[in-house]
């Protein structure tokens, strides 16, 4: 027993070290990946929302699916050993018929740590408070990490690792919006490349040379361009930045092409539309997602 | 090296647990129950009630808006406010216009102001969905563009190319094509698309819940 525990610990340490190198090699942000310096450097990055998706259920037209992804850039093979931070509250906020205020919330909280942690769905229900300081509404059900679960009220829930569905040529973006790469900042308050003006090349700092193509690292941010254009394509005669040549260099699907692809942690809820519309005067919804912390940081 | 150490520590903490973080740390008894339609059943009980208030530290409303238009150093401010609070509490609203004006200034000859128009379309930073629409598929900015991006359900599908949709609206000729604004002739082709091909299998829906592809 003692021997197997030691082996397990050693394996975990090696895995962590390898993951650290991989993660560093691909330190980057995209849709909302690594949104601030503090979110990117938290001990547990599940406070960092990458994306939200809302779409009709592909198997039941009466249902809608909402997915909120967190924990950006989990290396391939590390998904099932990445967990949620139990000090956080994840929320989907909904305003019916107008942009504000929120009049319905769906919340998630996590109990425990590691592979045995459980996830509790709260709501959907009217929020206890409107604004940025919130408490949990009444719990609906608790289920296991990384386990698709059917609830009695027609709701399906899942919380666990998934492949990151977001796609972008991130290296090309950083070739003229280098400020958006958190690695170009040294603290939560460091303005970084924005002091150079709205367009800057962050030289893909924090990303190893082997990953970022040289043409993206050395591109001229005053003539911003993505890659993959037909040779001879230009910005256009009316471009305020000049009529320069667009890049014909190869594109990179950064989150899928590198290191076997990256993962996120996903909260997915499939819910009957009626649970989001009954009792409200409008079926037109405005949605946004937040993460709240019990420690305030 | 700095980031290697930071990240290794982060992943180590995630692997070894976060008992010191506060919040819920005691797992209830596990009971996966009898699968229902291939899905598990919930635990028989919920954890003890939590009455403490949690403070907002992260906000997400639309894809690629903060990233395209807002200085990175201002994200921390936007993350701590409601997405509808507006200027000056939320710097995002003003920066949508100021950034757009840099690349695509208002045109007196075409009588267009793309910055002001985008500001009105993209702020508040919230996703719009019409649940009364039971026929259309999800399509990012579907409601704002009156269906031009694929339907009137709105929302966002896993395979929606939100980067090209956003770039086309901000720097291409998407808005003039759908009649929102006149063609100002100021589009910048080099940043109107990132030219990625169709999404990979891991970036599209699977046939069963939870529909997002399994981890790499």
Description:
The complex is a heterodimer of chains A (297) and B (216). By secondary structure, chain A is α+β, with helices and mostly antiparallel strands. Helix content of chain A is 15%, strand content 29%. In chain A, β4 and β5 (118-125) form a beta hairpin. Chain B is mainly alpha-helical and 216 residues long. Helices cover 28% and strands 5% of the residues of chain B. Chain B is built from seven helices and two strands, in the order αβααααβαα. Chain B has helices at residues 2-16, 65-69, 75-78, 91-103, 114-122, 162-171, 174-177; strands spanning 54-60, 127-130. The longest helix of chain B has 15 residues, at 2-16. Mean pLDDT of chain B is 86; it is low at 1-23 and 27-35. Chains A and B meet through α1, α2, β1, β2 and β3 of A and α1, β1, α2, α4 and β2 of B. β11 (284-293) of chain A pairs antiparallel with β1 (54-60) of chain B, so a sheet runs across the interface.
List the helices and strands and how they pair.
The complex is a heterodimer of chains A (297) and B (216).
Chain A: H1 2-25, H2 37-41, E1 49-56, E2 63-75, E3 88-96, E4 104-111, E5 118-125, E6 133-134, E7 139-144, E8 149-150, E9 156-163, H3 170-174, H4 214-217, H5 254-257, E10 262-272, H6 274-277, E11 284-293
Antiparallel strand pairs in A: 1-2, 2-10, 3-4, 3-11, 4-5, 5-7, 8-9, 9-10
Chain B: H1 2-16, E1 54-60, H2 65-69, H3 75-78, H4 91-103, H5 114-122, E2 127-130, H6 162-171, H7 174-177
Major sheet characteristics of chain A: 5 strands, antiparallel
Estimate the mean pLDDT confidence of chain A.
88
- What coarse outline of chain A follows from CA principal-axis ratios? globular
How would you spell out the order of helices and strands of chain B? HEHHHHEHH
Name the quaternary structure. heterodimer
Query: Per DSSP, what share of the residues of chain A sits in E-state strands of 2 or more residues?
Result: 25-35%
Summing up helix and strand content along with how strands pair, one would put the structural category of chain B as mainly alpha
Helix content of chain A: 10-25%
User: Could you give a short account of the major beta sheet of chain B?
Assistant: none
- Beta-strand portion of chain B reads 5-15%
List segments of chain A where confidence is low: pLDDT < 50 over at least 5 consecutive residues: 1-29
Count up the helices of chain B. Answer: 7
């Amino acid at each position: 027993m003692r021997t197997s525990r030691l082996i397990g610990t050693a394996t975990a340490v090696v895995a962590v070290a390898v993951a650290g190198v991989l993660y560093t090699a691909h330190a980057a942000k995209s849709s909302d990946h690594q949104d601030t310096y503090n979110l990117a450097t938290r001990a547990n990055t599940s406070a960092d929302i990458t994306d939200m998706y809302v779409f009709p259920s592909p198997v039941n037209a009466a249902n809608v699916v909402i997915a909120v992804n967190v924990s950006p850039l989990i290396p391939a093979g590390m998904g099932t050993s990445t967990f949620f931070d139990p000090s956080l509250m994840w929320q989907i906020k909904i305003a019916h018929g107008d942009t504000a205020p929120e009049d319905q919330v769906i919340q998630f909280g996590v109990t425990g740590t590691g592979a045995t942690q459980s996830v509790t769905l709260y709501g959907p229900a009217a929020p206890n408070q409107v604004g940025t300081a919130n408490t949990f509404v009444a719990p609906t059900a608790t289920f296991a990490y990384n386990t698709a679960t059917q609830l009695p009220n027609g709701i399906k829930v899942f919380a666990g690792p998934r492949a990151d569905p977001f796609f972008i040529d991130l290296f090309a973006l950083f070739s003229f919006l280098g400020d958006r790469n958190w690695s170009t900042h040294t603290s939560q308050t460091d303005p970084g490349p924005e002091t150079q003006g709205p367009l800057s090349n962050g030289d893909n700092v924090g990303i190893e040379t082997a990953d970022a193509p040289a043409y993206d690292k050395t591109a001229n941010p005053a003539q911003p361009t993505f890659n993959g254009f037909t040779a001879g394509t230009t910005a256009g005669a009316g471009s305020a930045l000049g009529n320069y040549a667009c890049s014909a260099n190869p594109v990179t699907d950064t989150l899928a092409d590198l290191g076997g692809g990256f993962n996120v942690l996903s909260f997915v809820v499939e819910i009957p539309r009626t649970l989001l519309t009954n009792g409200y005067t409008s079926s037109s919804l405005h949605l946004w997602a937040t993460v709240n912390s019990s420690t305030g940081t | 090296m700095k980031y290697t150490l930071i990240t290794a520590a982060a992943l180590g903490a995630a692997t070894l647990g976060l008992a010191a973080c506060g919040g819920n740390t005691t797992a209830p008894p596990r009971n996966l129950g009898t699968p229902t339609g291939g899905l598990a059943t919930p635990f028989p009980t919920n954890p003890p009630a939590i009455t403490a208030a949690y403070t907002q530290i992260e906000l997400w409303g639309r894809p690629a808006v903060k990233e395209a238009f807002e200085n990175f150093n201002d994200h921390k401010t936007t993350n701590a406010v409601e997405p509808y609070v507006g200027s000056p509490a939320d710097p995002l609203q003003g920066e949508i216009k100021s950034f757009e004006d840099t690349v695509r200034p208002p045109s007196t000859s075409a009588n267009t102001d793309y910055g002001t128009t985008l500001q009105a379309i993209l702020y508040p930073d919230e996703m719009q969905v019409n649940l009364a629409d039971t026929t259309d598929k999800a399509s990012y900015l579907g409601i704002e563009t009156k269906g031009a991006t694929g339907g009137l359900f709105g929302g966002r599908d896993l395979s929606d190319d939100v980067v090209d949709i956003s770039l086309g609206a901000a720097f291409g000729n998407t808005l003039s094509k759908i009649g929102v604004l006149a063609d100002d002739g100021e589009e910048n082709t080099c940043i109107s698309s990132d030219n990625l091909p169709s999404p990979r299998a891991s970036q599209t829906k699977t046939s069963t819940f939870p529909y997002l592809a399994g981890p790499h």
